[in-house]
Design brief:
Elements: H1 2-5, H2 14-47, H3 54-83, H4 86-103, H5 112-135, H6 137-140, H7 146-172, H8 179-196, H9 198-203, H10 219-232, H11 238-269, H12 273-301, H13 303-323, H14 331-358, H15 365-392, H16 396-414, H17 420-433
């Protein structure tokens, strides 16, 4: 029985897949404790509260960090593919993110500019590292199990969040959080990331060999040159491009949940620190379940069909949050509906990442996952800003959530023009042309049906 529950059962490279997933587990300390919960609250309530524009400054920091990723992400990915140095790139941004995360513990109340700069550096490093991590997925998987392995990583990420949230309560307690307690949480986030990501660098292998570099030109120029070639190859990978366009639209809604979940629960439903932590724990459990079930069924149902089902869950559940009663005696409605939001959050992440991997030839992994990161971070710039604008207007928070549901409906419709079979066949053809640039995969790559 226990053997059947082992998520790594039957994989040819279980240790490497586990080590790859450990990075997702490790970086949740930044995603949950910094982005969604404690630093956002600390910055708006303590660091920038005296300015009267705390939400604006927080929004600027979030947008700038994601804008930097939009600019740099594809170039970093192209350079990594050209040099065969994805693992080195991942390690570089891992060290940067750990450093910036720990430095947040030294941001004192009133230090607005310092807090913004450190956060921007940390969030930028986190996102660039995620791009490098995702680019290993087609190399450690086969076409038949890519959805399962993607789900393992995503589920381990939510497991990391589930493990670290109760630990933070040991620091903050159940009452109002003090400034010193906030800052200790940021140091905890850095230590958690530092320790738990170590297996990734021990056991994940770098398979792609360095390509012969031109006699002249910097790596940045080479990166831009490869991006230009990617644009010229757009017809061959047209289904990937179509998917990324759809992904951008519904990712706008996903980012609203990431950056506004705490704000919505506190402002609309009056949650204090303890309820907020319990709410995020529930959301994390539901997200982990969503990621795990997606991994089990995605390869059987098909990638597009799975995404359609998850987008339906998203659209209905965000409408549920929008029209849930705000009275304390009906608070249970919000708790119930939020389970579906969490389920959709976990499922949509692993399903989208697996779809990109399915449509990507292995010699373009870092570059195309850089494009995936570009679409995702572009959505992080656009979605939260639109949500904030509508929420601040006479329409209010409720109709802003209706708009978010519209993002998911639009993505649902757009996916009908994405043909996963034709797209994966194009990736196979490109791989055959570039086969000489790769070492042997974990197992022989079976042909697609």
């Amino acid at each position: 029985m226990l053997r059947r529950l082992n998520p790594f059962r039957g994989l040819p490279n279980p240790l490497e897949v586990w080590a790859w997933g450990m990075y997702d587990l490790a970086n949740q300390s930044f995603s949950i404790l910094i982005n969604t919960l404690f630093f956002a609250i600390y910055f708006t309530q303590h660091v920038a509260a005296h300015t009267g524009k705390a939400d604006l400054y927080w929004g600027i920091a979030v947008s700038v960090s994601n804008l930097l990723v939009v600019i740099a992400g594809p170039v970093i990915g192209a350079v990594a593919d050209y040099t065969g140095a994805k693992k080195q790139g991942l390690f570089f941004f891992y060290v940067l993110c750990v450093g910036f995360t720990g430095a947040l513990g030294f941001v004192e109340p009133g230090a607005v500019l310092l807090g913004m700069l450190i956060y921007i550096g940390g969030n930028f490093s986190l996102a660039c590292g995620e791009n490098f991590l995702a680019s290993f997925l087609p190399e450690i998987s086969t076409r038949q199990n890519i959805g399962r392995i993607s789900a393992i990583g995503w589920t381990m990420g939510y497991l990391g969040a589930l493990l670290i949230l109760p630990v933070t309560l040991l620091i903050t307690g159940l009452d109002e959080i003090t400034v010193d307690e906030f800052r200790r949480v940021f140091v905890l986030a850095a230590v958690w990331f530092l320790i738990n990501a170590v297996p990734t660098f021990w056991f994940v292998k770098e398979r792609k060999r360095r390509e012969q570099a031109p006699q002249a030109g910097s790596l940045v120029a080479i990166g831009f040159s490869r991006l230009g070639q990617t644009a010229r190859d757009a017809f061959r990978y047209r289904h990937l491009i179509r998917f990324l366009m759809c992904f951008f639209v519904y990712a706008c809604g996903v980012h609203v949940v990431i950056y506004f979940a705490g704000i919505i629960s506190m402002r609309e439903f009056g949650f204090g620190p303890f309820k907020l932590t319990m709410f995020m724990t529930q959301l994390t459990v539901a997200a982990g379940l969503g990621a795990a079930l997606t991994g089990v069924y995605q390869d059987r149902l098909g990638h597009r069909r799975t995404l359609h089902a998850l987008l339906c869950v998203w659209a209905v559940s965000t409408l549920g949050v929008a029209f849930a009663p705000r009275e304390p005696e009906h608070e249970w409605v919000f708790w119930v509906v939020s389970n579906f939001v969490g389920f959709g959050l976990g499922g949509i992440g692993t399903a989208s990442r697996a779809m990109v991997g399915l449509l990507t030839p292995r010699h373009k992994t870092a570059e195309f996952f850089g494009l995936w990161g570009l679409a995702y971070k572009s959505a992080a710039v656009v979605g939260p800003v639109l949500f904030g604008a509508v929420s601040a207007s006479p329409l209010g928070m409720r109709w802003a959530l209706v708009m978010v549901s519209g993002f998911f409906v639009t993505g649902f419709v757009g996916l009908f023009i994405v043909d996963e079979r034709e797209g994966s066949a194009s990736a196979d053809e490109a791989e055959r042309l570039e086969a000489s640039t790769f070492g042997p995969p974990p197992t022989e790559q079976p042909q697609r049906p």
